[in-house]
Amino acid sequence: MRPEITRRQLLGAAAAVPFAFAAPAPGTRYEATWESLDQRPCPPWYEDAKFGIFIHWGMYSVPSFAPPRAKGQTPYAEWYWNSLTEGKAGKPRGAATWDFHKRVYGANFEYKDFAPLFRAEMFEPDQWAELFQLSGAKYIVPTSKHHDGFAIWPSKEADRTWGRAWNAVSTGPKRDLLGDLAKSVRAQGLHMGFYYSLYEWYNPLWLSDKPRYVREHMFPQFKDVVTRYKPDIIFSDGEWELPSSDWHSPELLAWLFNESPAKENVVVDDRWGKETRHKHGSYYTTEYTAGLQTGAHPWEESRGMGFSYGYNRAESLRDYHSARELTLMLIDLVSRGGNLLLDIGPTGDGRIPVIMEQRLTEIGEWLKVNGEAIYGTRNWRRTRQWSAGAVPNFEEKEFMGEYDIRKLVDEPKPGQAHIEAFFTKKGNDVFAIVPRRLPREITIADVKAGAASLLETGDKLAVRAANGSVTVTVPDALREKLPERVAYCIRLTGAA
Prior knowledge:
Number of domains: 2
CATH architecture of the largest domain: Alpha-Beta Barrel
Number of strands: 19
CATH topology of the largest domain: TIM Barrel
């Protein structure tokens, strides 16, 4: 993840008509050019999945520290080494991390000394995978290595170019963490992939000879991890240091789509060179923002439950989104044609913090009942219905944009509208997802529908049409027996 802001143009809240994406045709070959690679369709499983789990886990999970709210400081705990280096050099951005490090570990304790302390002795991949299945997530994306270059699989390139034990089999856990997790995740029927950082902050070869680093380290290492684990999804990152021509990304992706064992189903993001975001890739990415406003190209918003991807011991309960807020984010993003990649940060000993387990379990409880309105859906011609008042515009950003879903639903600014319903579409059905206790009547504007029912129970609901809208009536007896939910889904059959 990259801690710097990139602005994009202002767009309104109207959604574009989504494209229909077919699976890549078997036997199709792609040239090592963006023109050719961009012709490869996004495999349909990704757009159907909607909800994934990001996992930032590595050596940085031992100190697990970042100042979550300090201005000018890096809020990401996985950037610990970079922040530490900046702090040592007297730069304000790393000052808090350097002060913490001196106090807890001592000024002479180097980042590499965390390697033997990253033991993952409590890591139980089957338990992790069972939790992911309960959460309702459909794909899992752990960090195979972050910008510190430490690999959680037996990467010989990591050890060789760093000149020391720099993977989880050579030191620390002495275990193939990525491989063990992949087996457990797939046993639960979930899609498995990984995050891969193209560059490494302080790799000696990167610092001395970038073309050699790409040729002798990055290329063979990437091919190794793909060949070993056959990912369904790859979240590339760290691309901003070089253009894609210097990374030779088109050549690498041509190998991935033509030759690799993952070629049929693999989905890739848009981070393959400093010029590629929102231009190339199976899907586009945003990070700690409100995401994109249209579903014209597959896209995904990623974020942690708090302010960091890696586990941050400095965060408290007030820094975490509630399960309700996270569920509403998922609903909102899906209504606009996007996916949510929600991050968890395990501890250095291999535990998923209990608060993260709780959040995932509650999201899963809602999806167990209402998942039909999420999985396999596409954005409708309208994404939301607003109450009376001014509808806010959203500034699209790739990184760190304003996004408080609770205020948009519950506490709008004076004179501003709030969201009354979100919409998704599947076949001839439109789902109106109401983010509060169901009222006796709800009027849905600019729609025709032959029938309506409550998704949770299947109960048919009375529909009255007038002036191009429909009013759906929910009987009091039904309302009273419904358990409390984050949101309730009304199926509009034959909607137009």
